[in-house]
């Protein structure tokens, strides 16, 4: 059995919050949340989403972090420590497979972002033909860009927890916030932005419906990287004196803050594009091209803005790459932790093996894109992630002895038993969260 004391740890609570928030802050926040808001009533979706983050996602986040810190090992062994029978171990293995498959298609999408970023830079240098080649994504282009993104992810994870994931996250996340702020300030100077802002912030209660509630619930769940054990493996690198409910709240707040800020950027940008003659909504009022908004509508808007648009495009796609990278390193770390500890490989060897395997899966998807890409996305995000998340809540709520959970939480929060959190959270994780999860799944 691996030596727990020899495992890396986050050197500071700030570093952990940045890394965990970075894991949660990904394309789902910057791309998914704003388009969901635009498609589901704007401000009404925002309000329901914020409620769901703290009624569904936050309690589950505490559960994953607590299991991880209790086990102090990879998700397979941490879940086994909580419930020694085979079922818990199987959940850990399923999470490793699911997160690897998610990363295999996620790296393809991130590769497209790298292509647009480099293309915009080439455009600025007057290399129009080269720029066009980078965004004309054939098989070879997709493969090269995917490998480039995965190599960067592998490089960061190979350097370990404190010198790799934590160090890069503490640089990348503040940069992400700075780029967000600069982009939001710029987009607000453009014609049409205020119309998008009104849609985002002024609720129309008549838009509310069960579908909006379910979509908001699903977005909150996926936004915090729950259900694939990324937060569990990060929790295993936490020191025992960490106040887990407090840290979980901080991560949820940062993640929600980024999603909220993304709405300030993307929705006004959509209406700026509309002002520039780009079709955004159909005659029925539904959002066009929601799945490819980042790669169609916004680049078309940037092109109408001349040289300034090219500069804005460079900043925007850099922002997207950072968001993708902070998520991809957490996804890769799940499988690397499992391989390192289950097979006694060094981190460098584990990163090489797992990274190469994921690149190979990405290549298979690229060569069979029409039949496999959508299938893998649906298999992992619509089925595997909610089912695994449901089993994690059942293990934490029903199979893990309540006194042991309390003892683990007390290590960083001695007075927890007298507080409101402990009176509510065990009931939530046992009953409310599984019920809400089943609603998300069957919807």
Automatic annotation (TrEMBL):
**What's the superkingdom here?**
Bacteria
Got a GO cellular component term for this one?
Answer: membrane
**UniProt-listed Pfam families:** SNF (PF00209)
Q: Which UniProt keywords apply?
A: Membrane, Transmembrane, Transmembrane helix, Transport
Identify its membrane topology class.
Answer: Multi-pass membrane protein
| SUPFAM superfamilies tied to this protein | SNF-like (SSF161070)
Any transmembrane segments, and where?
12-31, 43-67, 88-117, 137-157, 169-188, 208-235, 247-271, 305-327, 348-369, 375-400, 420-442
CDD domains in the record: SLC6sbd_Tyt1-Like
Which InterPro entries does the entry link to?
Answer: Na/ntran_symport, SNS_sf, YocR/YhdH-like
Q: Which compartment or compartments is the protein found in?
A: Membrane
Q: Does the keyword Transport apply?
A: yes
PANTHER family to which the protein is assigned, alphabetical:
TRANSPORTER
Protein name in UniProt: Sodium-dependent transporter yocR
Whichever gene encodes this chain, its name is yocR
